[in-house]
Amino acid sequence: MALQKLKKEETLEMRKRLIGQSCRLFYADDPVKITRARGQFLYDENGKCYLDCISNVHQVGHCHPSVTKAAAAQMELLNTNARFLHDNIVMYADRLAATLPEKLCVFYFVNSGSEANDLALRMAQQYTQHEDVIVLDHAYHGHLKSLIDISPYKFRKLAGQKDWVHVAPLPDVYRGKYRENHPNPGEAYADEVKRLIEEVHGKGRKISAFFAESLPSVGGQIILPQGYSSRVAKYVRSAGGVVVADEVQTGFGRVGSHFWAFQLQGDDFCPDIVTMGKPMGNGHPLACVATTAEIAGAFTSNGVEYFNTFGGNPVSCAIGLAVLDVIEGEDLRGNALRVGAHLMDLLKKLQMQHQVIGDVRGVGLFVGLELVTDREQRTPATQTAARLVKRLKEEDRICVSTDGPWENVLKFKPPLCFSMEDVNLVVQCIDRILTDMEANDLKLDKEDI
Ligand SMILES: Cc1ncc(COP(=O)(O)O)c(C=O)c1O
């Protein structure tokens, strides 16, 4: 409370002066100053309530009392680094192991999704003794230099593609190379990876890892076609590489039917390394790499210690345990399934009324609404999406944002306590705004083209 003493304009002025300007604000033209939050609701300095449809970090709801209580209790007792023997780290690793296939049984705790992916990259390269990495187009895997190198979403705007990085097509069945009318898009996109591996081998190079989100997020809330991952894994492993599933956005029950999004690809698919982050600590910096005994063994075998000052400390692990308890105790996976299905259902109905809605896709509370200027060409309606996001915030105090290479996909990744009423409200508001845009603002779509 003591920290909230500045007027909004003062905060803004100080932020402009003191904080690096590449750290951008949401709604940069008219930022929101949030001073407290609970569940799926954010409150500004005047007590006005905003509905949070995008925080994929506050998985069990903002400031969940069980989580804050666990954090405070452990903070009061002890916080040290993970070099002292302590129960929390092992109890937490054991609980995580129970959510994963048996072979993913060794854990390294870190502080952010970027750290987890950087460590996964090191492990893959050390285990395979190969260097090259295959990533999906438009992917983002983190802000460290090593990860900018494997994130086409970033490196295309910066130094460009390194010779050890290879980009496979995004398996997007709405606007990608193989679409919903293809008899087997999963196989067709996987065979693109096979071709890429052959090209890499042709250059005398070798694959260390195939790195992909289990549901590509920045790429536009993409749902991978069935059969894709197991086929890719077969090709990658036969080239001597490993498969890394980036679950930084998608893990911890978001998809509802499963705890991890990679499990949507069926029981015959299991990654070799899973990275996790954002929702793990419900806002506390907590992240992790889970891997097999063989890969962990190879990482250890060079004799170099891995030391991470904060990773796996007793407070972080107490928080992680509390988050798991809430996900289970409040049946948040069941809620994600039911509420997500309701959201999909209402958005699909909306699609029948508004030509601008080209596609509705999702699983659990990971949902995308893709806007297009014409359904035939599927031309991205970027301006319309931006206007819609702005009006939802200004007129209804609903926070959503966009993703995808053209920023024309509205993304919904709310805390898993999101309710049926929240869904009804959001969809009603989108309907009202689109109806109004269609009646008064048809120029807008032309601007898009
Ligand atoms: C898929 C994915 N991986 C990794 C990261 C990096 O995580 P962090 O920002 O915690 O370093 C992000 C962050 O947005 C992400 O979306």
UniProtKB/TrEMBL annotation:
This is 5-phosphohydroxy-L-lysine phospho-lyase. InterPro entries: Aminotrans_3, Aminotrans_3_PPA_site, PyrdxlP-dep_Trfase, PyrdxlP-dep_Trfase_major, PyrdxlP-dep_Trfase_small. It comes from Channa striata. Its cofactor is pyridoxal 5'-phosphate. It holds the Pfam family Aminotran_3. PROSITE patterns: AA_TRANSFER_CLASS_3. The keyword Lyase applies. One of its GO terms (molecular function) is transaminase activity. Keywords: Lyase, Pyridoxal phosphate. It comes from the Eukaryota. One of its GO terms (cellular component) is mitochondrion. The lineage of its organism: Eukaryota, Metazoa, Chordata, Craniata, Vertebrata. Belongs to the class-III pyridoxal-phosphate-dependent aminotransferase family. PANTHER family: 5-PHOSPHOHYDROXY-L-LYSINE PHOSPHO-LYASE, PTHR45688.
